[in-house]
Design brief:
Layout lengths: L2 H10 L4 H6 L13 H19 L1 H7 L10 H15 L1 H4 L4 H14 L1 H6 L7 H10 L3 H13 L4 H7 L3 H9 L2 H18 L5
Helix pairs in contact: 3-13, 5-10, 5-12, 7-9, 10-11
Length: about 200
Amino acid sequence: MNFLAHLYLADRTETSLAGSVLGDVVRGPDLSAYPPDIALGIRLHRRVDAFTDRHPIMQSARAPFIQGHRRYAGIVLDMAADHALARQWEDFHPQPLEAFALRCGQAIEAAAKWFEMGGGTRLKTSAFANLLQSYATDSGMERAFSRTAARMRQSDGLIDAARNWPSLSSDLEGQLPELLKALEQEMHELMRRYPAPC
């Protein structure tokens, strides 16, 4: 899952919004330097990613990727799922996407020191909120793919693998309720295994 889906799941389970994004930033198993709620959010993010990769819906969605593109399939599908979620947002969440994105942006900016400690960058509320909202548009998605590709050694590989993202996103739209429900259940199960943050 990409940022929007992780944040949606964190909100649904009342866990750390910042932690759900930091899971893409922080490396390594030692999370002792982070506040307990953020450390839990990071752990949940990692487990959700692993669960998503194994889920039959995503396994099936990976199948059409040709040799050479398969290494990028996870990134493409995660972003395509965020587009599907953004387009159907009102079906999943009572708060408008604009307001939700702003709330998430505020949480991310408030946790700036933890992003910097994890090797990430300080993010402003408005910039992050705009990023989340941009997933609802085709042009926003194209920019997101370009930004992601620019951080890779072989940027052309991701761009080529992502050319069919609109149809992948359309395919995921009908399956998103089942996938998000399974992920939310998995998060609740994982939370029972971890001690509650102090």
